[in-house]
């Protein structure tokens, strides 16, 4: 079987595409996979690093406002159509799967117009514009959230699969997770992250939470600030007289042990990117979600509301976030174990631990035999 996967721009589109590629290889070890991405995007580095063959085409995100730049970008997308046609002629795929982002548009469209079987995966509760346009051309669209179904025109093409998460998520014991971070398994643990790049507004609110927690031995903290604002966050802690190097606090630039941190967390605080949410649902963790306000078409708020609606999370909008109201919510939840347990159950109920298998099945059923 010969499969093209495509998706790019942010990690949010690349990691699911890589997970799908690897999932297909587990079921069909002799499958040939080619990843098409843009030459300039993060995928040009991440895909070869993951051991998957990569072909680069032209491409760039369309500016939201009409300008000269729009014409330039349009030209690149047009070039990508022609480049894709050459790749398709040579590779002759049995299936093309797109995960969104601007590169997926020209690739999936060209493949569909030439009659190759095509699929899409949508990560967010509010579908991206590329995937919405492509729906009419592809065989099926696999979605993460039931909420996104209403936003697509052609419902008969939609399959609810969820979003694949790393296999370690939800499969590590609390003891092992805490041990990995040098923390205690028998303490309440707060996990805070701002997504892969960090979130300045969460980092600005957290010192107040830490001030309240300073005297408490019963609550541990794992806080990944993100690389970009790590130094400024440490300076701000210092300026506020907060001694952050404590036995029961971990203030880090980036959490490379996210599955372990999630395993010992009792409450998650963070942004509402689709992968993060898929992870907290599979791990069954209650969340305080602060959607990134500048995400395209405010899609993170739609993601967050999907969990809130089922009682799995509370939402604070970024514009309303202050240290004191974050603390009030954290304290309110940490002091109500029964409420935390109910939220955890609701999160787990929404999780799709079998997402990758479901997606691979749709891929195998759709590909030319
Ligand atoms: C800013 C933005 O527009 N982000 C979008 C991007 O997500 P983006 O890729 O930025 O963020 P996600 O929340 O989806 O994923 C972050 C990933 O990084 C991991 N992580 C994070 C911090 C850390 O210290 N360690 C660590 O391992 C998380 O566990 C997760 O696996 O694509 C997603 C899917 O289309 C969208 O839903 C997001 O809205």
TrEMBL record:
InterPro entries: GlcNAc_MurG, Glyco_trans_28_C, GlycoTrans_28_N
Gene Ontology terms: biological process: carbohydrate metabolic process; cell division; cell wall organization; peptidoglycan biosynthetic process; regulation of cell shape
EC number(s) given by UniProt: 2.4.1.227
Pathway, per record: Cell wall biogenesis; peptidoglycan biosynthesis
Protein name as annotated: UDP-N-acetylglucosamine--N-acetylmuramyl-(pentapeptide) pyrophosphoryl-undecaprenol N-acetylglucosamine transferase
Function field: Cell wall formation. Catalyzes the transfer of a GlcNAc subunit on undecaprenyl-pyrophosphoryl-MurNAc-pentapeptide (lipid intermediate I) to form undecaprenyl-pyrophosphoryl-MurNAc-(pentapeptide)GlcNAc (lipid intermediate II).
UniProt subcellular location: Cell membrane
């Amino acid at each position: 079987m010969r499969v093209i996967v495509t998706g790019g721009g942010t990690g949010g589109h690349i990691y699911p595409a890589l997970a799908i590629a690897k999932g297909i290889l587990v079921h069909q070890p002799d499958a040939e996979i080619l990843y098409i991405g843009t030459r300039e995007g993060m995928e040009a580095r991440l895909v070869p690093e993951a051991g998957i063959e990569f072909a680069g085409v032209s491409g760039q995100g369309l500016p939201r406002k009409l300008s000269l730049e729009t014409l330039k970008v349009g030209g690149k997308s047009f070039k990508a159509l022609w480049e894709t046609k050459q790749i398709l002629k040579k590779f002759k795929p049995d299936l093309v799967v797109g995960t969104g982002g601007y590169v997926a548009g020209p690739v999936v469209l060209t493949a569909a117009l030439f009659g190759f079987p095509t699929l899409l995966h949508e990560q967010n509760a509010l579908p991206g514009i590329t995937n919405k346009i492509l729906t009419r051309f592809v065989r099926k669209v696999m979605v993460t959230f039931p909420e996104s179904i209403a936003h697509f025109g052609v419902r008969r093409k939609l399959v609810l699969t969820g979003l694949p998460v790393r296999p370690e998520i939800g499969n590590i014991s609390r003891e092992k997770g805490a041990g990995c971070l040098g923390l205690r398994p028998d303490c309440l643990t707060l996990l805070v992250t701002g997504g892969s790049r960090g979130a300045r507004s969460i980092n600005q609110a957290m010192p107040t939470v830490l001030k309240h927690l300073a005297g408490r031995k019963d609550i541990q903290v794992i806080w990944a600030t993100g690389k970009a604002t790590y130094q400024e966050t440490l300076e701000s802690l210092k300026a506020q007289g907060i001694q952050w190097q404590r036995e029961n606090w971990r203030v880090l630039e980036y959490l490379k042990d996210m599955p372990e941190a999630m395993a010992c967390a009792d409450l998650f605080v963070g942004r509402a990117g689709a992968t993060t949410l898929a992870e907290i649902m599979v791990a069954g963790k209650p969340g305080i979600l602060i959607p990134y306000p500048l995400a395209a078409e405010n899609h993170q708020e739609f993601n967050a509301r999907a969990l809130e609606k089922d009682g799995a999370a509370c939402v604070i909008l970024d514009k309303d976030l202050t240290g004191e109201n974050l603390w009030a919510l954290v304290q309110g939840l940490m002091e109500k174990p029964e409420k935390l347990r109910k939220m955890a159950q609701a999160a787990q109920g929404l999780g799709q631990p079998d997402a990758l298998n479901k997606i691979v099945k749709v891929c195998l059923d759709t590909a030319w035999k």
